[in-house]
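On clarity, I found the account of how folds are encoded harder to follow than it need be. For illustration, here is how one protein appears when written out as sequence plus structure tokens.
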Amino acid sequence: METKLNKTQSTLINPPTSLKGKLKFVGPGLIVAATGVGAGDFIMATIAGTSFGWSLMWVIAVGAYIKYVLSEGVGRWYLATGKTFLQGWHSLGWWATVYFGIYSVIFGIIYGAAEPAISALVITAMFPGTSFELWAIVSGVAGFVLVWFGKYEFLEKLMTVLIGIMFVTVIGSAVIILLNIGNVSYSLAPSIPEGSFFKLLGIIGGVGGSITLTSYSYWLHAKGWKGKKWIPIMKIDLGTAFTITGMFAIAVMIIAAELLFGSGTTISGNEGLLGLADTYGERFGSAARWILLIGIWVAVFTSIIGPWHGISYLFADFVRIVRNKGKSIDNDEPISEKDPAFRIYLAWMTFPPMLLLLFNQPVAIVLIYGVLGAIFMPILSIGLLILLNSKRVDPDYRNGKINNIVLGLIIMLFLYLGASELYHSFFS
């Protein structure tokens, strides 16, 4: 059966049935996965590779699976019910909607400072002596302009190109490492080396993406996927995307393990990625250093464009729900990038955060963002656990036992991570 197109609504009626046809529709998952692969995930992979070689490689697969489960839950809720994630969230009570409104306002200004700051750190490593503040502002404004003037179709194509660049640069760098591997012997057997517990949790619970995972339902809507028959393709979409991004993190771990494992070098913070690139350049030349830095920067920049677009969708939906006082909303009238609330939040994420750059503390800003992410993830998991086991979803599309167990474990994991993050932030 071929895919048909509704000319009046530009909505795909029948999804393709062949695997080749399904793979051609991969797109929304690439956006949510690329958005989630920020500097935080790369930093933790670097630290783990430096400290423990390849022995924690299995943990990256677990972390990717967790993000898959959360994103799949968001997507399945939308396709099975026809309601956006935030509409489902609102059905839990007005407290949930108010919580999201407060959280999104705080998140916007912190995240809006954190990611451009990391982008600026990478660019100043490429061009020493240039202004950190200037590059941070340019990075934020670039994301603003691309989202303001671009639509979903443009965003998907741009993200696909950027992921291609990440694939060539980062995974290519890992291949170079493997072809020139030294005499260090690595174990791939799943293990928990002594002293690795907190790093293990950091990799599994990498909070990159956090609230941006909830944007998936809006990107599905923008793609034109509606109805339960799109759920199988949605799962392929996410499975493909998180497999690719998991490969990125594994590549970084391989690079860090071969360059720094057993050297006594300790890497921490956002500068760790730059230190890794410097060491890589010392071994393979300045061109190789540049290639790796480009890959790191692209990973960071995708984490600017995606949230600038996705969280603005979420905020516009929040305003729509409040304006309608929680009453039923016709989702055949999608949220537009030209919606005033969308553009107001886009501006909120871009310009007020620039004031935080005056403090010249990019690492501290990223730490605060990490705390916010650790706080949100268990709330998201609890919401999905309730919604996907409720009568709001047809029995065939509710959670199975495995999904419920995984979500329960995610809640416990992130509650522990959140408590640890808060404790270390305020008492260490």
